[in-house]
């Protein structure tokens, strides 16, 4: 068995059509962190990713898994559920992350008893055209980071995370075994950070070099499509983590529209005793009822959010904290 400072370390490498880079990632991991098991997760690749990965893993500790449900979130769920370890490393198979930083990251998690350490991406090469880290993704990352920080009341000078969408992170067993998210795709990185913030886990970030993809390797990201996903994720976070605020805001907006529509009708009723605009009156009534329902829905969902967090906390406390053994 392989152990690093008394801990069994598992490295999960999600892949989708990464035949040009997966061999380099596996070899680099073996060079810079040989005391770990490497699990390559092939997510319906149509190229030779799995065959190249199997060849690269020959005679080494690791194996290739095939995940049929499309999406990185499904890969992460499979990694967390099927693999038993003390520390879990997540790194993309596109050779953009720095494997040389992994030992320092694992040491930091063990020495500081952290539950998650995120590799904050720092570009090491001049990129005037923003091809390595696109402007759209950079903006989306900033919006998402600020939104999550606001939701969890994190001030700018004490934020745990400034790169919410990094795919490079080290996590403890108690973090992994209490992660109950059902996210299937792009939003999994956000959920990984939210889980840590929900349970107030000891976490941190470490600057790591971020490289451009090798020539001929194409990104699977889409600026506009992923931009809409980020906006949807932000709205979803507000509705699930701050339901009272979210639904009360909707309630106030509905109530205001209802009052604006009802005032002229009410004035006319006081002066003439008739309601000539019956459809508008019904609409105003319906909007006010919807506002009331929205407000109480927020109160009920707040209890659901609290119960879900307590359930995750129970699973979290059942595992040991990361430490050198």
Query: Assembly type of the shown chains?
Result: single chain
Query: Got a strand count?
Result: 7
Number of helices: 10
Structural class: alpha/beta
Strand order of the largest sheet: 3-2-1-4-6-5-7
Mean pLDDT across residues: 87
**Proportion of beta-strand residues:** 5-15%
How would you spell out the order of helices and strands? EHEHEHEHEHEHHEHHH
Strand count, sense and barrel status of the largest sheet are:
7 strands, mixed
Radius of gyration: 24 Å
Through-space gap between termini: 15 Å
Q: Which regions have little confidence, pLDDT < 50, spanning 5+ residues? A: none
Fraction of residues in H or I helices: 40-55%
Quick one: overall form? Answer: elongated
Question: What key attributes describe this structure?
Answer:
325 residues; alpha/beta; 7-stranded mixed beta sheet; 10 helices; 7 strands
Structure description:
The chain is an alpha/beta fold and 325 residues long. Helices cover 50% and strands 13% of the residues. Helix 5 runs parallel beside helix 8 (223-241) and helix 8 crosses helix 9 (243-272). The longest helix has 40 residues, at 278-317. The protein starts with 8 loop residues before the first strand and ends in an 8-residue tail after the last helix. The model has no long low-confidence stretch (mean pLDDT 87).
């Amino acid at each position: 068995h392989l152990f690093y400072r008394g801990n069994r370390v598992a490295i999960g490498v999600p892949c989708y059509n990464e035949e040009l880079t997966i061999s380099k990632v596996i070899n680099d991991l073996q060079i810079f962190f040989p005391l770990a098991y490497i699990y390559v997760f092939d997510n319906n690749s149509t190229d030779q990713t799995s065959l190249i990965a199997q060849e690269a893993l020959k005679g080494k500790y690791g194996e290739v898994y095939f995940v049929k449900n499309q999406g990185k979130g499904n890969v992460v769920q499979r990694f967390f559920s099927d693999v038993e370890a003390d520390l879990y490393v997540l790194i993309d198979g596109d050779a953009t992350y720095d494997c040389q930083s992994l030992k320092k990251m694992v040491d930091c998690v063990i020495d500081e008893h952290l539950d998650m350490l995120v590799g904050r991406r720092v570009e090491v090469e001049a990129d005037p055209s923003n091809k390595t880290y696109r402007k759209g993704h950079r903006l989306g990352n900033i919006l998402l980071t600020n939104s999550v920080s606001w939701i969890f009341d994190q001030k700018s000078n004490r934020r745990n995370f400034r790169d919410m969408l990094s795919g490079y992170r080290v996590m403890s067993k108690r973090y992994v075994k209490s992660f109950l998210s059902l996210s299937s795709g792009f939003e999994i990185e956000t959920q990984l950070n939210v889980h840590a913030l929900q349970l107030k886990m000891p976490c941190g970030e470490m600057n790591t070099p971020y490289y451009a993809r090798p020539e001929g390797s194409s990104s699977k990201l889409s600026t506009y499509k992923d931009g809409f996903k980020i906006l949807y994720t932000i709205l979803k976070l507000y509705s699930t983590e701050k339901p009272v605020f979210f639904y009360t805001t909707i309630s106030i907006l509905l109530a205001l529209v209802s009052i604006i529509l009802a005032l002229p009708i009410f004035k006319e009723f006081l002066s003439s005793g008739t309601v000539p605009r019956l459809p508008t009156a019904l609409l105003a009534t319906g909007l006010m009822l919807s506002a009331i329902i929205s407000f109480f829905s927020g109160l009920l969902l707040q209890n659901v959010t609290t119960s879900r967090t307590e359930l995750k906390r129970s699973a979290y406390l059942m595992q040991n904290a990361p430490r050198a053994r």
